[in-house]
Specification:
The protein is α/β, with parallel strands linked by helices. It has one domain: Alpha-Beta Barrel (TIM Barrel), CATH 3.20.20. 40% of the residues lie in helices and 16% in strands. The strands form four sheets. Strands 2-3-4-5-6-8-11-12 form an eight-stranded parallel barrel, surrounded by seven helices. A three-stranded mixed β-sheet has the order 7-9-10, covered by helices on one side. Strands 1-15 form a two-stranded antiparallel sheet. A hairpin with a 2-residue loop joins strand 9 and strand 10. Helix 7 packs parallel to helix 10, helix 9 runs antiparallel to helix 10 and helix 13 runs parallel beside helix 14. The structure holds beta-D-glucopyranose. Beta-D-glucopyranose binds next to loops.
Length: 405
């Protein structure tokens, strides 16, 4: 029998009920998130960000169009985030209108046959929360828990999967960068994360989980961790494990009592005797400067499974920034072949959500285009790319087709 490069039979069937979706985050697509810390950062006189988010994709108004497209393309799941800065624009002032807005989004997804996966915190916080000292300030976790409880009317409307905090390790990294007075690592790899922020985020996640279960014990609660796919060169195994633990593994271990864990990877980082190495000189680089390495997801799933116990895995983000959409199809083909191989090996993987539904604001710039759907920055007209039809087709059939491999 002919097999894929991963040794699988062609036309691999994914499990029934598998989540096939695309992901977004409020600040990156909604536009005019004026009460958030990021908006303030974008408009600070000394900002180092190349461009502000502005109107983004105007998804605050056009979310129906986005969901219509995703459903029509064949997707069954849509991950989006609720913006804390909108729901609680001033401390203790919860906006009924914004809560109703996000509730309508949940209802709108369900009406279209899209299962909503809701993220409660995706990198942005209210400006007032940042001003009072962020995650490590006195009472910060109580404030987060109060916000989580305030989202009850939204998530009790038919949401099953809730992601409390997106990529806590990247949040703790951003604090470390701020303390170092830089935004990029001086060498390959990343600095040590801020430890008090790490501890605070883990506690915030656990408190949010309890709060969510009190809203409904049926909610499936998890969080999503950024996986850098650390690969040890021969002899560097112990150094790699030591490097990975505080930067990543500690967050995976904190999910051991969760209902699921989100796995998010884009590329790999090789570690040698002297630490992390840059991408190989002949590597194809994407628009973010990362090595084209679709196998990353397979490695990240296996790494996570080894640490988290029998908690189900969901790929909550995976994708590539490229202007050449055929490379996106190649990337997704490689990634899904790796997911299929991991399933064959018995990993309990419940879904695959691509990053991202739309070309969006990539934290400082619109240049890296991760989207399955292009967005005209002036008219906001959406145009699905061939990769969107390809991935949506796969969602419809639940099979990796022969012709695409
Ligand atoms: C984040 C997204 C981001 C993507 C690509 C993840 O770290 O959750 O917000 O756009 O990676 O950089």
């Amino acid at each position: 029998m002919e097999t894929t490069p991963a040794g699988l039979p062609f036309s691999f069937p994914f499990p029934d009920g598998f989540l096939w979706g695309a992901s977004t985050a409020a600040h990156q697509i909604e536009g005019n998130n004026v009460n958030s810390d990021w908006w303030h950062r974008e408009h600070a006189p000394d900002t180092t960000l190349p461009e502000p988010s502005g109107d983004a994709c105007d998804s605050y108004h056009r979310w129906r169009e986005d969901m219509d497209l995703l459903a029509r393309l064949g997707f069954t799941d849509y991950r989006f985030s609720i913006e804390w800065a909108r729901v609680e624009p001033a401390p203790g002032r919860f906006s009924k209108a914004e809560i109703a807005h996000y509730r309508r989004m949940v209802e709108g997804a369900l009406e279209r046959g899209l299962r909503p996966m809701v993220t409660l915190h995706h990198f942005t916080v209210p400006h007032w929360f940042a001003e009072r000292g962020g995650w490590t300030a006195e009472g910060a976790i109580d404030l987060f828990e109060r916000y989580v409880r305030a989202t009850a009317p939204i998530i009790a409307t038919g949401v099953r999967h809730v992601c409390t905090i997106n990529e806590p390790n990247m949040i703790a990294l951003a604090v470390a960068f701020r303390e170092l007075g830089t935004e990029v690592a001086p060498v390959a790899g990343i600095p040590l994360l801020d430890e008090p922020t790490t501890d605070a985020l883990i506690e915030a996640h656990h408190r949010a989980r309890t709060a969510l279960k009190s809203i409904s014990p049926d909610l499936q609660v998890g969080w999503s961790v950024a996986n850098q796919v650390y690969q040890a060169l021969p002899g560097a195994e112990a150094a790699t494990a030591a490097y990975s633990h505080p930067r990543e593994d500690v967050f995976i271990e904190a999910a051991r009592d969760d209902d699921w864990i989100g796995v998010q990877s884009y590329t790999r980082t090789r570690i040698g005797a002297d630490g992390p190495l840059p991408a190989p000189p002949d590597a194809e680089l994407t628009l973010t400067g990362w090595e084209f390495y679709p196998e990353a997801t397979g490695h990240a799933l296996r790494h996570t499974a080894a640490l988290v116990g029998d908690v189900p895995l969901i790929v909550t983000e995976n994708g590539i920034a490229t202007a050449d959409d055929s490379r996106r199809v190649a990337y997704y083909t490689g990634a899904l072949t790796a997911v299929a191989a991991a399933l064959e090996d018995g990993l309990d993987i419940h879904g695959y959500l691509a990053w991202s539904a739309l070309d969006n604001y990539e934290w400082g710039s619109y240049r890296p285009t991760f989207g399955l759907i292009a967005v005209d920055p002036d008219t906001f007209v959406r145009t699905p790319k061939p990769s969107a039809a390809w991935l949506g087709g796969l969602a419809r059939t639940g099979r990796l087709p022969r012709a695409d491999l």
